[in-house]
Design a protein that fits this description.
The protein is 69% helix and 0% strand. It is an all-alpha fold and 732 residues long.
């Protein structure tokens, strides 16, 4: 049987051809095996904000609210919103929560991501087969395997927030498969043709609701229609420059599909823009190159960033969770010729122009596949390129998930070309197998790094030691684990690299405040709020520090400023109440704590403070009412039962007081907080003592001392009780 060109080139690859089912199974298994370490991971980095602290992921939040919030749970109309609108991704998170009976189980989230990556890799096998008209199974298989094991995809698969890219990619590839089958059908009617095109538009809209890049599939399908279905090349465009001739080059059914895709794309973009309302606001530290005033310098820096993106796809040694804040320093034209990166950028443009010329004008039999690889890579990367709008990052490995599809296709075609010479064919085969093995090992190793925040942040220091954000995140992790001395060093390093890093100032000040270094904490917080006037958290922390320094007027001003910039700030109201209490302004303190519990009904300390304060000023009935309201919201909170029991005891409601004491003791037993448990037993003993149930009083005094032998009050009460019993038992 005579081989056509595609079959011939495919046969040159020094690998055996597998049956279709075996190819799918192998690609799927490799996708899963490479990420097998991920399933035991935790929530790391952005997962905390997008999943753990996102109320939209909680099943108690009405589903309808998801559609008015961004990916991080902030209202889209809020100025602080990132405008990343991905409600279907949030729904998938809720599905994981539902599967685990309302619990946030990291394993469930990670396993879902691994399965989705396997699905994407298997769908990609079909896409590659479609691009080669099912005539190059070995080429499609090799490209799919390279995609499945490529280390640059680790961030998408191993981080839970990568779910957005995975869902979008699934739909992206599904749209292409559907469109390819419709476009290549010989017997499709006009109605079916139109319906299929509309269905592809709907699916691309759904893909966009998972992640913004999903809508770009409509441009890819349009390019496929022109390049593959209608076989339009640059040469034919040049020869037929007149519009009448050009219009005749496009088939009638193709024209109908292209119009549908174009209209659909415009409607989707308009809808997305309307939902967003206004573009997101980014800071220069997020993406310094986009804030350069010189257009030439922007082009130079963007070009250098593109080079790094290509390099980490080609040689994924440098992988970092965050590439901002000094990771990629800016290139300035006045540094020429001292900065060698300028020569690299110049070389990049020469190579790019040469490759573009070869792709567009080549008569190679793989011209259309190369062009489609270029289109998929370039078009899917376009939203992250800074060319259409400013993005909030320098480099994001997750943004390379879809572009790598086109990049890998071009690389595999290059490998196939190398196999023309029989002498080096076997060498190429060995090199490819070794490359896949190395990439698989690197992917497994990198996925293990994503299992722990500390390891992830430490690994970033090897790639970006000058990145202030890496030091900042490492400091946060160290502080959370209790290593405050090392956390302080890391925060100071972050501030040395970026002297106006207001968040680092705020966090460092918090640690210094806890160490009673109030003056240094005050200086840091004052600088932070001078840099960012609306930094509500820093204003609140400044209020706490000033209160500690007894600067009550200034502290009140700081708290009120924080509340002006963030109206819903229950913890700030709680601290404001503490300030008023310290000044003896009980009415103001009560009002502040009421605001805290109104905004956050589960704010236990604010409830407790209200009850204790009302108790201390003799307002026992009001204290009882507040305690009952608090317990209706937090029925399993031992401290509230304890406070209620104390109040009821003072009101001589001994029986009800006893019930609350016993409930508090039962609940506190579950927490293993022995000091509080001893206090509860001691106070219950006092209740029984007053109630004249002396045996029970003695029993609970002894239980309190058995838990905490150094506790003085039960010792004194026990002595008094026994003295009283002796007096009763002595004969007259």
């Amino acid at each position: 049987m005579k081989l056509n060109k595609s079959n011939y080139w495919d046969s040159l690859l020094p690998f055996p051809a597998l049956p279709g089912w075996a190819s799918v199974l192998t690609v799927g298994l490799l996708s899963i095996v490479c990420y097998s370490a991920t399933y035991k991971g935790t929530f790391v980095f952005d997962d905390s904000e997008a999943v753990v602290n996102n109320h939209d992921v909680n099943l108690s939040t009405p589903v309808i609210k998801i559609f008015s919030h961004d990916f991080w749970g902030t209202r889209l109309t809020n100025n602080a919103s990132h405008k990343s609108y991905r409600p279907l991704t949030i729904l998938s998170f809720r599905f994981n929560v539902w599967l685990n009976n309302g619990e946030l189980s990291p394993m469930s989230f990670h396993i879902t991501n691994i399965i989705l990556h396997a699905v994407v890799s298997c769908l990609l096998l079909q896409v590659y087969n479609s691009l080669f008209r099912n005539e190059a199974p070995k080429t499609s298989f090799l490209a799919s395997v390279m995609f499945a094991v490529h280390p640059v995809h680790t961030e998408v698969v191993s981080s839970v927030v990568g779910r957005a890219d995975l869902l979008s990619a699934c739909l992206f590839l599904l749209v292409f498969i559907i469109y390819h089958n419709a476009a290549n059908s010989k017997t499709i009617s006009f109605k079916v043709n139109l319906a299929t095109s509309l269905f592809c538009c709907i699916l691309s809209f759904i893909a966009m609701l998972c992640k913004e890049q999903g809508v770009m599939i409509l441009i890819v399908c349009s390019a496929y229609e022109l390049i593959v279905i209608n076989k339009i090349t640059i040469q034919t465009l040049v020869k037929n420059a007149e519009f009448s001739k050009l219009s005749g080059m496009v088939k009638k059914e193709s024209f109908d599909r292209l119009v549908t895709l174009t209209v659909g794309f415009l409607i989707i973009i308009y809808t997305r823009w309307s939902i967003m309302g206004s573009p997101p606001v980014f800071q220069p530290i997020d993406n310094p190159a986009s804030f350069l005033e010189s257009r030439i310098e922007k082009i130079v820096n963007y070009s250098y960033i593109y080079i790094i993106n290509i390099w980490i796809m080609l040689c994924p040694i440098w992988l970092c969770f965050d590439w901002s804040m000094g990771c990629v320093s800016l290139i300035h034209l006045n540094q020429f010729p001292q900065d060698p990166r300028l020569f690299l950028v110049f070389g990049f443009w020469i190579v790019l122009v040469f490759i573009t010329y070869k792709i567009l004008y080549s008569d190679d039999c793989h011209q259309r596949q190369i062009q489609m690889g270029f289109v998929i890579g370039a078009v899917s990367f376009l939203p992250a390129s800074n060319l259409l709008f400013r993005v909030g990052f320098v480099i994001a490995e997750r943004a390379l998930y879809l572009p790598s599809i086109g990049f890998i296709l071009i690389v595999v075609l290059g490998i196939r070309k190398l196999c023309r010479e029989p002498i080096i064919r076997e060498i190429v085969g060995v090199c490819v197998v070794m490359m896949l093995m190395v990439q698989s090992i690197r992917t497994y190793q990198r996925s293990e790094e994503w299992n722990s925040e500390y390891i992830l942040f430490k690994s970033a220091l090897k790639v970006c030691p000058m990145n202030a954000k890496v030091h900042y995140n490492l400091a946060k992790n160290l502080a959370d684990s209790g290593n405050t001395s090392e956390a302080i060093n890391r925060y100071r390093q972050a501030l040395e690299l970026h002297p106006e890093y207001d968040q680092a100032m705020n966090n460092l000040a918090n640690i210094l405040k806890d160490q009673n270094k109030l003056e240094e904490a005050k200086a840091l917080l004052e600088k932070a709020v001078s840099i960012r006037k609306d930094f509500a958290a820093a204003w609140m922390n400044l209020g706490i520090v000033l209160s500690g320094l007894k600067n009550f007027k200034e502290a009140e001003f700081a708290y009120l400023t924080a509340l002006r910039h963030r109206r819903r700030y229950p913890h700030c109201y709680y601290n404001l109440g503490n300030l008023y209490l310290e000044q003896g302004q009980n009415t103001k303190a009560l009002l502040a704590w009421q605001n805290a519990t109104f905004q956050q009904p589960t704010h236990i300390i604010a409830w407790s403070n209200m009850i204790v304060m009302l108790d201390s000023i003799g307002e026992l009935k009001r204290a009882e009412n507040v305690a009952r309201k608090a317990l209706s919201i937090l029925p399993d909170e031992p401290s509230l039962h304890f406070n209620m029991a104390n109040i009821l005891g003072k009101l001589n409601k001994y029986s009800e007081s006893e019930k609350h004491f016993l409930t508090a003791i039962q609940l506190k037993n579950m927490t293993n907080n022995l000091k509080l448990l001893a206090l509860y037993h001691a106070n219950l003993g006092v209740l029984y003592h007053r109630w004249k149930k002396y045996e029970l009083a003695e029993s609970h005094y002894l239980q309190a001392l058995n838990i905490d032998s150094k506790m003085q009050s039960p010792k004194d009460n026990l002595v008094a009780l026994r003295r009283h019993l002796n007096e009763i038992n002595q004969p007259n």
